[in-house]
Task: structure prediction
Amino acid sequence: MRAPADVKARAMCNCVRLLASLWIAGTVLPAQTWIAATDEGLVKRTGMWTAGEFRHAGSGHLLTMEDGAALELSFTGAGVVLSLDAHGLSYARLGLENLGILEVTIDGRQSAAVLPQREDRDVVLARGLGDGAHMLRLVHRATAAGSGARVAGFRILRGGEGDLSFLLHGEANRFLNDIRAVVSKNGHVVRNSLIRNWLTGQCRIAGLPAGSGYQVELMAAGWQTQHLRDIEIKAGQETELQPVYLRRRPESTTSGVEFPRAGQPAIVRSGESFATRVFLAGVSIESVELRRQLGPATISREVVFREDKAREHDGRAEGIITLPAGVAPGLYDLVFRLPKKVSRSAPRAVYVVTEYPRNPVFVTFGHMDTFGQEAAEYLQRLAGLSNLIGADMVLVSNEVNAAYALGAFARLDMPHLITFGNHEVAGHQEFYGNAVSMIDYGPELSILNFSHAWHGDLSHAYALLESRAKTRCKIINAFEHDAPVEAMLDRYRISFLHDAHGPGPKVMQIGRTPTQRAGKANSESFRVVRFEGCRPVSFTYAGHPSAPIPLPRHQPAPMQLSFSTPNDGAARRVTARISNRWAQAFPNGRVVFVMPSGDCTVEGGRMESAIASDDGRFVVLTARADIPANADIEVTAESRQR
Result:
């Protein structure tokens, strides 16, 4: 019996146990014992069970589709919690839902019948068991809905525990799969786990020691974090809270602006113009502004929108915005203020530069399988590294869930382009606009962003390339690599192609131009692509012929940034420490400080800009520094009172 597509077979070490220590009121409680379902030394299998994991997940499971397949476990404890794994995402080609039923017997007596279709990951099978050893047996059966169950493991209870449950839904709910829940008490983390059944919205956190004063933080990239406070857990009971509703974060929500937008930015200098289209439905505009928020510092400039009445259609106004002189560099939200405190906005839609880069630098990666929160947290790490490396743009290929991706990239300090591909969640245009677009990075560099396979209709791509026929440097960010060579790559002199799907060497030259391909090699790495003029000259790790820069998903990043004091505008002297354990240097890295207003200086780096906040209380200071391989450096910013 072959495993479904979402299951990646892997060897599992025998007798792997995780002892989850619970910290309450500063003291260590006796640990609950975690037994992984894949532990063949403790969990006996009958029938067909396949050990696997969701793509790049931090934990595994046993999957069965077979009627009558069973698991047996002998344990000593007062109770036991069954931990299921999440449902598959058949609509994104990531496996099937768990539609079977698990018949549970403990010590030969029927204990429960568990329907994974209805439950969250945690299900209490028994409490108040007597002293001594107990025998647990699970038998999978098909139901009228179908079959299948993914069992992650078992948590053995010591007694005196209770549970917490609630329903959770949110804006853009069909994109919301799972969330991270962090449970704490008296300032100590008690549980940190992924929760939520995306079919039903059911959430459950089982096996919490009884007590009051619990707090729960609920997080999903792109949605506003919710804090649940003053929760009491009663022994032997499930505390059911009122339903929770997560709203999208404003910085991850485009409202009424078709372009520019995140993923299709306008990149301009002060005094230059860009086109925009906004839904007004005949309502007048009170003001238009570019706006940035960095911690407590707000930086904004009012701009003027000049509508082209001939382009108005169905309530959508199109026109030109021209920047005044002296707009500070940075990535801005575009905000239209309308009467009655109504607004239209496109977060991170306009990137203002002092000069266009002569030798641009890109961070590239792809096929990261971001279908939920765990993968989105990996994207957030990549975003932070991209900021530190100081790239001019980030190119992302073949993503899955646009809602999580847009939330993860909210921390980027530069624009990003993104394509979706063979696992895409339909509807990514809601977050990123057209699947095919052309972005101009000044008059000499244009990037075609193409989310389709190359064997379909290419007329839109050809039209966009033809419109930039005289642009000196053109590159493509694609889903797949096999673009037409003579008709496209050679004809339009494409210098670089980034992709994340398809066969062949990931680093190769194509055609007569030649076009340099440097694509995704695996889903735990990225590339830094450096150009000299229009020619990519560096795109591998530490001089290797083809390797990308490795970034393990479930280990600390080899390069870390830390600050001597919170970087929040309070301290007049702040030191950033960069620790690089990669065997590769990163010249011209970037650190951003938020300082109190004053005369600013930089030690250990080069000051790039110092921008005053609107209220005059803060200065956003950007410093550049060369980051050596296998070394630590410090960059210090100081703001002296005038």
User: Anything to note?
Assistant: The chain has four domains: 17-246, 251-345, 361-550, 559-640. Residues 1-30 have pLDDT under 50 and may be disordered. DSSP finds five helices and 49 strands in the chain. The helical segments are 373-389, 402-408, 429-432, 459-467, 485-490.
